[in-house]
Design goal:
By secondary structure, this protein is of the alpha+beta class. It has one domain: Rhomboid-like fold (Up-down Bundle). It has eight helices and five strands, in the order E-H-H-H-E-E-H-H-H-E-E-H-H. The protein is globular. The two termini are about 20 Å apart. Keywords: Hydrolase, Membrane, Transmembrane, Transmembrane helix. One of its GO terms (molecular function) is serine-type endopeptidase activity. It is found in: Membrane.
Amino acid sequence: MIPLSDNIPSRRTPFVNYIVLAICTAAFLLQITQADSGQSIVQEYGMIPARLSHPDVELVIEQNVAVQTSRGIEIVPQRTTLPPSTIPPWLTVLTCIFLHGGWMHFLGNMWFLYVFGDNVEDRLGHIGFALLYIGTGVIASLSHWATGPDSPIPTIGASGAIAGVMGAYAWLYPHARVKSILPIPIFLYVFVLPAPVFLGIWFAMQTFSGVTSNAETGVAWWAHIGGFIAGAIVALIIGRTPIGSGPVMETRF
């Protein structure tokens, strides 16, 4: 499911949300303009769980690669030694949430943040939203690290932090509705769901994938799960806007 819009317009300009979108866009453009397709940036600023667990140990990545030989294409083992990071490994739990692995990864994350971020910033304020985004992003990174602390695969993406925003949204706006699209072969099905239902389905899908998938799938499912739960807990502590404290604007679909 892909969200198209919600029916709760924000009452203030979501400056922090726009700044996050701009930072992620600038970082992604820098990645795709690098001669090595941004791999040096990913290895430097992406979170590598093994580097975080063993910061003083030289990191050697062993992987199978396809090589053209006289007998055709063969799969051979390859060992790669990563150069020491120029930034403290613990800092990558933050820097990794501003990087992305491709156009679909980038565009999908930015769209979800655009749809849900403005309302959460409206409720928490600019500083509160910034702290939520960074805090849940760090918790998401640590959640992924905890499920595979010796993994040599770099972890990047804003998904965990955005999941935190979505978790907060699910609690803060229980009566919101989300216009969504379900891509089906031949045609696109558009429908409207209550926001908690849409986000609940999304969270259930992440949890199912996290439980049934292995750590080498290339998707940090537990980062999504950890970020969503952290965001929901923060929203639960803060509480919903009390009835009568002001009009809640909404758009009818």
